[in-house]
Specification:
The protein is an alpha+beta fold and 341 residues long. The chain has two domains: 154 residues, ATPase, nucleotide binding domain (Nucleotidyltransferase, domain 5), CATH 3.30.420; 160 residues, ATPase, nucleotide binding domain (Nucleotidyltransferase, domain 5). The protein has eleven helices and 18 strands. The strands form five sheets. The protein has a five-stranded mixed beta sheet with strand order 3-2-1-9-10, with helices on both faces. A hairpin with a 2-residue loop joins strand 7 and strand 8. Helix 6 packs across helix 7. The longest helix has 25 residues. The radius of gyration is 21 Å and the shape is flat.
Length: 341
């Protein structure tokens, strides 16, 4: 190991719509925080990032903006994303100027413009070399699949902004669907449910918490209840309602069905030989969406295929990206090149 290697920080980044995770070479996951930024509206100076910024949601005065700088898996605010990345890297690296290589996972349906935005953000945040890898490929590597094998594997990665569905074989993505329907749409469906059915306005944080605590895709052995607090749409007075997991399941059903329909579409378009592999091996479900109660069972019932959820599905992508970072030569062929995908 040379002197430069000793002082450099090679990082793998899962730059997600909902969460940003960073893997440091030789250390593993060193950061897992919400992709959210609080900044001064006038100066654009960043006040807080990650969990600290999330805690400020709905509690700040008009001079402070709180923003999620990524939308549907793509950078929506270049300047704020760059500042957020710089701050996150500074938290985990001894010196952000020493960051040499960065591997970033991106949606499989990313455009050339979006690729450039990701590369530029990382370079402006201090990286010397930036490599991109498609999320379903990173996810497959992260759950321990040998992606170089001539065997078809179906990955369904449900993140915050996108659901990535891909068939992987021979170190490449044979076919894929990248739909902008995922965890955020589930949360929004819950918010709209309370607005339409209970005249109750709740925020994103409440919607997310309801989804985590009582959200489900199938009937539960014992249905759950939760007290939801918000503002009455008619009177404007703070109030509370008791709702059940069955009601929340009904609110989520249309979003879940859209994801399942996207899986069906990919299966219909898959080559026959790979279909045989998938019939035998089933579906691998990763991402934060995999944590929704009973979602694996719902997909299994609808597709009649085995569905496997790895331990800590939320970490599958960053682990795969980290493995690529640790073995760049071995995985050179799986990374995104210009005009690929």
């Amino acid at each position: 190991m040379g002197l430069f290697d000793f002082f450099s920080n090679d990082l793998a980044i899962d730059l997600g719509t909902a969460n940003t995770l960073i893997w440091a070479k030789g250390k593993g996951v060193v950061l897992n925080e919400p992709t959210i930024v609080a900044y001064d509206r006038t100066t654009k100076n960043i006040i807080a990032i990650g969990s600290e910024a999330q805690a400020m949601l709905g509690k700040t005065h008009k001079d402070i903006a709180i923003e999620r700088p990524l939308m549907d898996g793509a950078i929506a605010n270049f300047e704020i994303t760059e500042g957020m990345l710089r701050a996150f890297i500074k938290k985990v690296a001894n010196n952000w100027n020493s960051v040499r290589r960065v591997v970033v996972c991106v949606p499989s349906g990313i455009t050339e413009v979006e690729k450039r935005a990701v590369r530029d953000s990382c370079e402006h945040a201090g990286a010397k070399e930036v490599y991109l890898i498609a999320e379903p490929m990173a996810s497959a590597i992260g759950v321990g699949l040998n992606v170089h094998d001539p065997i078809g594997n179906l990955i369904v990665d449900i993140g915050g902004g996108t659901t990535e569905i891909a068939i992987i074989s021979y170190a490449g993505i044979v076919s894929h669907q990248s739909i902008r329907i995922a965890g955020d749409e589930m949360t929004e469906a819950i918010i709209q449910y309370f607005k339409k059915n209970h005249n109750l306005i709740i925020g994103d944080r409440s919607g997310e918490e309801i989804k985590k605590q009582v959200g489900s895709a199938v009937e539960l052995e014992e249905e759950l209840e939760i007290e939801v607090r918000g503002r009455d749409l008619v009177t404007g007075i703070p109030t509370a309602k008791i709702v059940t997991s069955a009601q929340i399941r009904d609110a989520l059903s249309s979003v879940i069905n859209e994801i399942i329909q996207a899986i069906f579409k990919l299966l219909e378009d898959s080559p026959p030989e790979l279909s045989a592999d998938i019939y035998e091996r089933g579906i691998i479900l990763t991402g934060g969406g995999a944590l929704l109660k009973g979602l694996d069972e719902k997909i299994r019932i609808e597709t009649n295929l085995p569905v496997h959820v790895p331990d800590e599905p939320l970490l599958a992508v960053v682990r795969g990206t980290g493995k690529v970072l640790e073995n760049l030569a071995e995985y050179e062929g799986v990374m995104i090149k210009n005009n690929r995908y």
